[in-house]
Amino acid sequence: KKLINLVGNKINLTDEGKKYALQVIRIHRLWEKFLAENTSVTENDWHSIAEKKEHETTFDDANKIAAQLGNPLIDPHGDPIPNENGEMIFEEGIPLDQIDNGSFVKVVHVEDEPKEIFAKMISLGILPGAKIFVEEKTDEKIKIRINNKEQDLKRVYASNINVINVEDEIENEKVVPLSSLKIDEPAVVAFLSHGLRGQQRRRLLDFGIVPNTEIIARMKSLNDDPTAYEVRRTLIALRKNQSDLIFVKKKVS
Q1: CATH number of the domain at 8-69, please?
Q2: Residues 38-66 pLDDT 10s
Q3: Which of 6, 216, 221, 230 has its CA 20 to 30 A from that of 84?
Q4: Is this prediction's pTM over 0.70?
C-alpha cells in the first residue's frame, strides 16, 4: 500500500498513510498504558520502550492489549488513544497556571517533557483523573491541594498540566485518607489515588480495596506504621504511604 506522496520537496501522507500512522500511535499509547498499569517500569522509561514496541506489535496484538486493558481512551499522560478505526475522543483543558483561586479542577493531560518535571508530577500524584483544588497563585508558584495535602508548584510546572473545571468540591470534602481513621472506625472506600499505579495498585485491588467496600482500621504496630485494616473479613497491613493514597467516606453511626 502506498503510504506517502512526494510533491516537489514536500512529503504528504496518503489516506492509507494516515490510517497506518494512527495505528502506530494507537500501539505506542497502548504500550505506555500497559507499562504504567501492569509493570514496575518507571515513568521515564514508558516512552522509550513504547517507541520500540510500536514497530514490533501487530495491529491484531494491539487489539488484544486494548481488550486486556479495558479499551482505554487515554494513555498515562492524558493523550487520546485511537480505537481500531482510528477514532479518538479529545478532552480539552486549559493550563493549571491559568485557573483562578478557589477552583476545583480535574487533570486531563500532563506533558511528559521535560522528564524531570514529569517525574515530579508523578511523585505528587498529578496524573490524568486526579482532582486538584487551587488555593492561591503568586507570580512564582501555585499552592494546590491534592489527595488532602497542600503542595507548592512552580508556575512553569503548572503550565505543563491541563485541567478542566469540575463542580464536586463539596462531595470531595467528605472524603478523607484511609490513614486518618481511628481504631475500629468504619468507612467505605471511595477511590484510590492516581498516584497508586502498576503492581501496587493491582495488589490493593486484589485484596478487595475497591470502591463501595467497607474497611475498618483494626490495629497499629508499635511505631504506628503499618496499620492493619479489615477488608471482607481479612486483615491487611498497609503502610502510611499507601493508606495516604486510599480515600474513604466515614460511615455515620
Answers
A1: 1.10.60.10
A2: 888 888 889 999 999 999 999 999 999 99
A3: 6
A4: no
